[in-house]
Amino acid sequence: MKKIAALGLAGILTAASTAAIAVEPEDAINYRQGAFSAMAWHFGTMGAMVKGKMDYDAEDFSRRAEIVAQLSKLPMEGFIPGSYTGETDALPAIEQEWDKFEGGMNTLIENTAVLAEVAKSGDMDQIKPAFGEVGKTCKGCHDNFKD
Ligand code: HEC
């Protein structure tokens, strides 16, 4: 009963999605880290192609760009109250500067959507700057909110 009351309060404090109320902090941490890892898996290969370290395959690049755009929507719901200690690199600043953090996530969603769209052109002159924007978004947030 006590636990249910605490979780209910947490839900009120964050106004997070109802899914967030039902999970344990460790699960939320694993979930968001998994989403980021999958994102980095594809983004890394895309980066190798952009930098010419790997042959550019337009179809494969485009497929990965779509995946990254979809994955960018996942981590947010894993940032729940009580999940900023333990096996995590997420900084408590996330809770203190929630609007800024959420803004960063929304920028990621927007920029990865642009990249996925531009990737369809197969034109590296357009892809490069769009890829760069996404990279900056990753780094910008990590500098502020990741240990
Ligand atoms: C708005 C903030 C934000 C953005 C944007 C963001 N990240 Fe992260 N990222 C985080 C936070 C916070 C963590 C730490 C998560 C944790 O340890 O609980 C993290 C962790 C990671 C990790 C480590 C996962 C693990 O297994 O511990 C990788 C890899 C990563 N991000 C890649 C990326 C890539 C690639 C992008 C851009 C395509 C990106 N991130 C964009 C905030 C962000």
TrEMBL record:
Superkingdom of origin: Bacteria
GO cellular component: periplasmic space
Binding site for heme c: 138, 141-142
GO BP annotations, alphabetical order: electron transport chain
Molecular-function GO terms, alphabetical: electron transfer activity; heme binding; iron ion binding
Modifications after synthesis and translation: Binds 1 heme group per subunit.
Protein name: Cytochrome c556
